[in-house]
Amino acid sequence: MEATRGETKKKAVEDRAGGGETKGGRPREVFPELCSPAPVRLTVWCKSLLFNSHGYTVYDDADGRMVFRVDNYAHNWKQETVLMDRAGHVLLTIRRCRKVRPHFSLSLSLSLSLSLSHSWEAYKGDKDVQRIVREQRPLFKATKDLGSPSCTISMFPEDGVKPLGYRMSWSREKEWSKIYQAAANTPVAEIGRKYGSMPMKLLDKDVLALRVQPGMDQALAMAMIMITNSMR
Fold first, then answer.
1. Any domain includes 77
2. Residue 156 lies in a domain
3. What is the biggest distance separating any 2 CA atoms in the chain, rounded to whole angstroms?
4. CA 168 → CA 41, 127, 220, distances in Å?
5. CATH of the domain at 149
6. Closest residue by Cα to residue 206 from 198, 190, 194
7. What DSSP element (H or E) covers 119?
8. Which pLDDT value is given to residue 136?
9. Does 168 map to a domain?
10. Do residues 44 and 225 touch, judged by C-beta distance below 8 A?
11. Residue 2 pLDDT class (50, 70, 90 cuts)
């Protein structure tokens, strides 16, 4: 009886932290240390700390410590980039895929045109992407929804357990992006302009506030936000 109570309590803690199974799958805990049981607020500065480099610098609002950094020197930084922790260790490699696909439209006659299908793939760690494309499945793939300010996130299953899918949407006018669990349509992260200490005083456009809900992997959320910014 005591063992049963202990297992039930353990499962409840795992569910609150995002580690237990949920309807439609479960979140992928790629970095368990970045899955908080409480909401997390991050400040995203859309600049690199390094001179002449494109990227991001992300801080935890609770203690001011750096959480993530993105530093891009390569000329093709829009095609491939990496998300690092504060020590410079690569967490995720993000690769852009551009494929031309047919698009059918009905008018007086059936016509065929070509459109670009924008998609991104994310892999764990700092690896040669050309090699891991052949040897390793990505953690997730983000595909732009044609004609809509949104995209679909397809998580790849691991150990036979189906993970949750996600959906991202954004508004250029209102300057926000949101990430939802696709099955439950539940928001798991949101980013928008950051306000300063003065009431209703917005900071510069390159300073954003990222709110991550309990159980959501913060590295995955940040990677998805980076992809969203590339899709705009």
1. yes
2. yes
3. 73
4. 19, 26, 12
5. 2.40.160.200
6. 194
7. strand 110-124
8. 73
9. yes
10. yes
11. very low
Q: Is residue 191, in this structure, part of any structural domain at all?
A: yes
Read off the pTM: 0.77
Q: Which two tokens stand for residue 177?
A: 């992006």
Tokens encoding 151 = 């995209």
Q: How many domains does the chain have?
A: 1
Which tokens is 1 given?
């009886």
Domain that holds residue 167: 39-98+116-127+136-231
Among the ranges given (28-32, 120-124, 156-160), the one the predictor scored with the smallest mean pLDDT: 156-160
pLDDT tens for each residue of 27-65: 556 899 999 999 999 999 999 888 777 899 999 999 999
Contact present, 121 and 94 (Cβ < 8 Å): yes
State residue 64 phi and psi, 5-degree precision: 80, 0
Q: What is the rounded average pLDDT for all residues in the chain?
A: 78
Neighbours of 152 (CB within 10 A): 15
Q: Residues 97, 83: contact at Cβ < 8 Å?
A: no
